[in-house]
């Protein structure tokens, strides 16, 4: 290059001029990019409709790390530059790029490259951080990135009524408190996932981590609960012919808003003016020996189960919310009994195969250490049981499908770990309180709603012709195969077949 370089007046050397080196300048760009990303993430975080648990990591860990790295580069460049300049020769500090001469092609290229590169970097880091933010919002991030730890919840969720509702829509409650807790627990979760030392199974016994009632009510507001709900429960007995047995009933779901109808039925617990509080003596809230109701007029009634003599001040008192009944709205693990009933009702298992109900349930409930082991042993068991039946192929594949959707041996999760509190057949559910054995101080009155018709009426039951006779006023439960209609159904029923 033969261009003449016009001489410029040498700028006064200052300490700052030692920042004029490539390392420091790149550090500055990096720091600026990180700062931009931080500001962006921070504002998204503030204005987003619901908090994202992993956002904290991005906004308050990842972005600041880059910011610090950038600043460290600036400092390092400064130190190296200081060392390079011999003492007493400050003029040497200034012979750096700052003599940018736009007439010189090399300078022009360098400048364009540097400025263009910086802009591209700033743009990409903002875009990248926003994309990462979105990624952590998706259900596949929650459910699949943490593959083994979240697999049971994710699989069950995909089969639920809420399969299109984002994890974060339920799991991050409203309010600043919930927001901060989510941040903190998000970081802790990520740490435990990386270390692989998370609990198996994962339990949410800390009430603060479970969805809040307000969360559900953003979609299911109380005014919407009205009227009855008709449901059909189709079962097959564990006998040779897999005898069908169906119960059809009307559930008095009821309403909890006086403007839209009477406050009555099951959801009357949720009436704002009808407060139900309780004490649970175990972490899973299966044992509830003490209940207190405050009705609309402020009248307070306490109920205790007879054997509970403890002082209540030893226990935390909880207010009943949606999750005390709907504890499995989106992660429901079917009992083997219910899962096989369902497959038979839908024809995926042929009810004409002798003993099919009993045998598939038996295959499912054995203790297996891994899914692989389960698949192998379920298959070999069923093939030995039906050596010459062509239908065994589809039986095996359906049994494996049931196992895959409801059993997670690696995480030690199945219906036993997470019993469903709706109902009372396979676990105590409603009967944790409505067993007729929680008595008021008079020692006689039990909690209202503890007789068989308080929550539902059975309009038809049995099989075939029996189901054509519907009795709108209800019939008493005719318990097939057993005289027993004692409330504590789960003394016999535990989700497996009754021998
Ligand atoms: C409809 C609301 C809802 C949605 C959507 C939802 N959950 Fe849940 N989740 C719950 C409730 C309710 C519980 C149980 C709380 C309790 O037992 O007190 C729960 C419990 C959990 C637990 C604790 C273990 C357990 O099974 O009790 C994990 C882990 C979990 N959810 C992860 C997820 C993931 C991952 C997603 C998205 C793929 C998701 N959740 C979507 C409502 C929801
Ligand atoms: C983002 C909206 C949204 C949130 C939040 C939400 N749900 Fe739902 N829920 C739905 C939708 C949509 C359906 C499906 C409605 C249908 O099938 O008609 C549904 C269905 C249900 C059903 C009927 C289930 C069934 O199997 O048919 C129950 C019970 C329920 N939700 C309870 C809850 C509870 C409890 C919570 C809080 C933990 C909750 N929902 C949070 C949107 C939501
Ligand atoms: C006392 C227990 C209990 C409480 C508390 C409770 N529910 Fe329910 N809910 C039920 C039962 C039982 C059903 C009937 C559905 C069934 O058996 O599957 C039901 C049904 C529903 C349905 C489905 C209604 C339909 O027509 O399909 C929704 C949605 C629902 N509940 C939401 C809520 C929400 C939101 C809350 C909290 C504000 C709540 N529930 C509190 C017991 C309860
Ligand atoms: C934590 C204890 C508790 C649980 C669990 C519980 N309930 Fe209740 N329930 C109560 C109390 C307390 C009352 C109010 C009784 C009163 O007013 O004297 C009540 C009232 C009712 C009523 C109204 C009865 C009436 O005649 O006014 C119905 C219906 C009902 N519950 C259904 C259910 C169903 C269905 C479930 C299970 C999904 C359930 N409850 C779970 C404590 C509970
Ligand atoms: C506190 C309310 C409540 C009381 C009291 C109650 N039930 Fe239920 N019952 C329910 C609910 C809720 C379901 C629905 C469960 C579900 O949707 O999975 C149910 C379901 C049933 C079913 C169908 C179960 C199935 O899987 O086929 C039968 C049968 C039944 N109840 C019988 C009775 C009998 C008999 C009594 C009296 C001893 C009784 N119930 C008392 C709330 C109650
Ligand atoms: C003394 C033990 C016992 C008690 C208590 C009991 N059951 Fe059963 N139940 C049985 C037996 C045994 C069968 C037949 C099971 C089979 O052949 O698969 C059966 C069958 C059933 C079936 C049809 C098949 C199935 O497995 O789902 C339903 C529904 C049922 N019982 C509901 C109830 C309800 C609801 C209660 C409480 C009100 C109750 N049972 C209490 C022993 C009992």
3D architecture notes:
This protein is an alpha+beta fold and 499 residues long. It folds into four domains: 15-137, no CATH class; 139-172 and 174-210, no CATH class; 222-329 and 420-491, no CATH class; 336-411, no CATH class. 38% of the residues lie in helices and 9% in strands. It contains twelve helices and eight strands. The strands form two sheets. A five-stranded antiparallel sheet has the order 6-3-4-5-7, with no helix packed on it. Helix 1 packs parallel to helix 3, helix 10 (356-365) runs antiparallel to helix 11 (371-385) and helix 11 runs antiparallel to helix 12. The protein is elongated and about 105 Å long. Bound molecules: heme C (HEC) (6 copies).
Broad shape: elongated
Class per helix and strand makeup? alpha+beta
Q: Biggest sheet, in brief?
A: 5 strands, antiparallel
* Count of the separate structural domains: 4
Radius of gyration: 33 Å
**N/C terminus separation:** 97 Å
Specify the helix fraction band: 25-40%
Instruction: Summarize the helix and strand pattern as letters.
Output: HHHHHHHHEEEEEEHHHHEE
Question: Low-confidence parts, pLDDT < 50 over ≥5 residues?
Answer: none
Mean pLDDT: 82
**What hetero molecules are bound to the protein chains?**
heme C
Strand order of the largest sheet: 6-3-4-5-7
For the secondary structure, the number of strands is 8
How many alpha or pi helices? 12
Estimate the strand proportion. 5-15%
């Amino acid at each position: 290059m033969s261009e003449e370089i016009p001489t410029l007046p040498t700028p006064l050397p200052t300490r700052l001029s030692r920042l004029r080196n490539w390392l420091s300048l790149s550090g500055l760009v990096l720091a600026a990019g990180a700062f931009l990303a931080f500001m962006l993430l921070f504002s998204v975080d503030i204005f987003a409709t619901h908090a994202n648990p992993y956002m904290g990591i991005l906004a308050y860990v990842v972005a600041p790390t880059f910011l610090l790295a950038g600043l460290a580069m600036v400092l390092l460049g400064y130190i190296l530059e200081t060392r390079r300049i011999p003492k007493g020769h400050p003029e040497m500090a200034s012979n750096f790029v700052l003599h940018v001469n736009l007439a010189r092609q090399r300078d022009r290229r360098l400048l364009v490259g540097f400025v263009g590169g910086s802009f591209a970097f700033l743009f990409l880091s903002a875009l990248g951080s926003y994309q990462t933010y979105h990624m952590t919002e998706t259900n596949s991030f929650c459910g699949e990135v943490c593959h083994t730890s979240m697999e049971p919840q994710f699989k069950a969720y995909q089969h639920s009524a809420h399969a299109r509702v984002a994890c974060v829509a339920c799991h991050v409650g409203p309010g600043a408190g919930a927001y901060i807790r989510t941040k903190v627990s998000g970081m802790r979760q990520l740490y435990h996932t990386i270390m692989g030392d998370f609990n198996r199974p994962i339990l949410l016994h800390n009430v603060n981590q479970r969805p809040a009632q307000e969360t559900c009510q953003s979609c299911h507001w109380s005014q919407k609960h009205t009227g009855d709900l008709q449901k059909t429960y189709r079962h097959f007995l564990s006998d040779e012919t897999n005898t069908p047995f169906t119960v059809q009933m009307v559930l008095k779901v009821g309403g909890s808003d006086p403007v839209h109808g009477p406050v009555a039925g099951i959801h009357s617990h949720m009436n704002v003016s009808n407060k139900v509080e309780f004490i649970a003596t175990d972490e899973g809230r299966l044992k509830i020996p003490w209940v207190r109701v405050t009705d609309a007029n402020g009248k307070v009634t306490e109920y205790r189960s007879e054997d509970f003599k403890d002082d209540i001040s030893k226990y935390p008192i909880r207010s009943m919310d949606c999750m005390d009944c709907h504890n499995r709205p989106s992660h429901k693990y079917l009992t083997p009994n219910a899962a096989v009933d369902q497959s038979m009702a839908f024809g995926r298992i042929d009810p004409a195969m002798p003993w099919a109900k009993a045998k598939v349930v038996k295959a499912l409930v054995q203790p297996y250490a891994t899914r692989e082991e389960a698949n192998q042993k379920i298959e070999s068991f069923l093939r030995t049981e039906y050596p010459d039946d062509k239908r065994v192929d589809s039986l095996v594949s359906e049994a494996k499908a049931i196992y895959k959707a409801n059993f997670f041996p690696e995480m030690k999760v199945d219906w036993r770990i997470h019993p469903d509190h709706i109902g009372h057949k396979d676990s105590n559910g409603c009967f944790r309180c409505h067993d007729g054995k929680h008595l008021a101080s008079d020692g006689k009155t039990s909690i209202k709603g503890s007789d068989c018709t308080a929550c539902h009426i059975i309009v038809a039951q049995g099989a075939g012709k029996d189901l054509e006779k519907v009795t709108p006023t209800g019939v008493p439960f005719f318990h097939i195969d057993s005289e027993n209609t004692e409330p504590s159904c789960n003394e016999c029923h535990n989700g497996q077949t009754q021998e």
